[in-house]
Model the fold of this input.
Amino acid sequence: MRSLTQQPFRAAVLVLVWGWLLFLVLTPNLLVVGASVMTRDPGSFISLPLTLDAYRQLLDPLYLEVFLHSLYMAAMTTLVCLLIGYPFAWALSKVGKRNQVLLIFLLIVPFWTNSLVRTYALKLILATNGLLNNGLMSLGVIDGPMQLLYTEGAVIIGLVYLLLPFMILPLYSVFEDLREDYLRASHDLGAGRLSTFIHVIVPLTLPGVLAGIMLVLLPAMGLFFVPDILGGSRNLLVGNVIKNQFLDARNWPFGAAASILLTLAMAFLMFAHRLSKRRIGEDGV
Amino acid sequence: MNRWLPRTYLTLVYLLLYVPIVVLVVFSFNDSRTGYEWGGLSLRWYEALLNNRAMVQAMWNSLWLALSAATVSTLIGALTALALHRYRFRGKKVLNGMLFVVMMSPEIVLAISLLALFLLVGLQLGYVSLLLAHVTFCLPFVVITVMARLSGFDERLPEAARDLGANDFTMTRTVLIPVIMPALLAGWLLGFTLSLDDVVVSTFVSGPSYEILPLRIYSMVRVGLKPEVNALGTLLLVFSLVMLILSQWILLRSKR
Amino acid sequence: MKQTLLSLSNLTKQFDGKKVLDSLDLDIFDGEFITLLGPSGCGKTTLLRMMAGFEHPDDGTIALGDQDLTHTPPEHRPLNTVFQNYALFPHMSVFDNVAYGLKMEKRPKQEIRERVEDALAMVQLEDFARRKPHQLSGGQQQRVAIARAVVKRPKVLLLDEPLSALDYKLRRTMQVELKRLQRELGITFVFVTHDQEEALSMSDRVVVLKDGLIQQLGTPREVYERPANLFTARFVGETNFFPGRVDKANGDDTITVDVFGLKRTFRKPDFPVSGGQSLHVLLRPEDIRVLAPDDEDGVAGKIVERNYKGSTLDSVIHLEDGTEVLASEFFDEDDPTFDYRLGEPVKVSWVDGWEWLLPTEPEALPEEEGTDA
Done:
């Protein structure tokens, strides 16, 4: 099978792939790490000497507040996605096979639709004189328009809207693997609905929950265009800060340090996910 | 109750998911200028869109970028998947891990790191930088799609072909590629859509010489309402829908 | 009369430092049905894959007649394989699967069509030519795999556990079918299996393999009745091992052996024996006679298990010293004493001359089962 004629092909493929990843993934990431410990320079973006100023700046109350607020919004987004997505995935896994294919399809259609355009559509609904306010006013529920747009709530709604499928899909896949026998066995052994849920369903679906959190929480801190369109200037994400530092304020070390913060968060979540999978005896990816 | 509660719930969530899209489509045919009131049926925003030369140019640019990024990432991704599947080599786990990290990392982290690289090596920001960036974030998705197909692939098939007289090249052409074709197409379509939809990475690595659609939309929707966006969104929706149906059809057909 | 077709000599192969084949020599005759039999990890699959060209020996040669095949790639070897899970190309019709090998030979279209149709007729699948593999049953897929391999008229057909995925009944049918095909085609079959029953019923010769070494090479009858060593005796069929001690060697090519205190006279074995030496007396369950407890012949014991098997009645008997004896007797409805109850005392005996003697072997340390390479 490993005949000589294959060796050049094999070598070429490996060189190409390794080359691509080393040049366009590893090197750039090392550059970011490097940039984060250098000094800000208006001309060439960064310069020596090495310093930890950028990381110190992360702790500046002004930015710390932005980060914590971003983390709060991301956490809320994740929580809302989980609260909507968990029962949703469960219900979805119970639907007949034929309908399931169609429903999954309907779930990913929005995902294949331009996310900017979808965020913009939310704006049509949430604006002061948008559909929601107009509708509620004509129904007499409210007297005057509510301020929905440019609020924290609007940003969370936008993020939930964009990221919900990423929560549902991993959850759906663990519910699909959740065999009815386990539940029957649990009932058979005398467990009620609640204790079956706590002792069987939750642990077995935990990897899906963590995968969902991983897929929602991180983008929820990075999708800078959502606050740009829906949130106004007071509801910024870590992503907005990074973008501003790189493209407007030209403070690369600080932007780099902020992005390393996100990377660390990712590493932590990946680790947790692996752990949860190993607990139920599946190989972590 | 046991049957109706889940169904009602599913319906409700789908409704919420689709309301904005329906609003968008309906308003794209709205004659009103203000954007919030219904002013009668009209195709004026589609007309305005097609008369906007910069917009049409951005559309073509985006399309070309997505085509080329999807094609390049499918080529490299398929070869990577094959290498991971067939060969034993040192650092295989590292390679796998790197692809996984690229897939999981927040886009913005990838974006700034690529910007740093391009500026360091002095690459003019434009089509080439966009292409390199888009291929990089599409790559893991293609690899995963093709790997999934290969993992269900009977190891004996290439051997059977060799046994019956095919050399390595003929075997690849007549057995390997036809069998993984659905995955290649699915991977390509996924790459195409990811590229067409990307805002975050493109914001950092594009230059004035090559304006692409998402960035043009971005600059339009940041302030106020632009009814043309409704029309554009509807067009994009129809386009993605066609692509999605196509890819699902291919995958379903191949499973039989 | 028996002409060597495929000659394997000194084949050696290591995987990750573990010897899978150890200086193996084997001559395969023209037109025979030879079976490689052994437990998983014994090297039988590696050996077959080496003949096909998918593995390369670290040392040794493979020759077909006077043509050295050792370094010939699989596509240039006049041998074809029927794979374990058939390996039918899922994207091609049955016809295209069978035609694949002929297309590789660049045969004219007309000839390809005729030969494919013939091959499909031979396996009774002429009406299925346009189906895709997944539309066929397991047995039908198996036939396509065979047709695809034999349509190229190979010198040797290699079969890698081809029946293992089929259910018992279908397996029996396919065994008969394969035998018929082999006779009709006159092609040499090299068959790999871990199922000793299959090996015995189908083959002209059986190669018993363990740890990359040939344990025994012979006809099914030789392998079953005259196992070369304890491994073969244990692996092929059920066997009772009775401890024996040579009492004395008689002048007339017989020896007297003490078995459970009984003095029995056996034919002298082909290994050297001397007085006082320990040896194994092997008796197949069907060679054992279960007698009434008052019979003067035999060793006393009691019945601990009775299994009705349709045509035979299988018993497990515990002798007084704790030895467990398996007996398998054909029904004799006229014999009133035939059936015994559990716990009933009986005597166990056998007809002298049906035994087989093997020398004691130093017990090998139990080894981890390797993966089937």
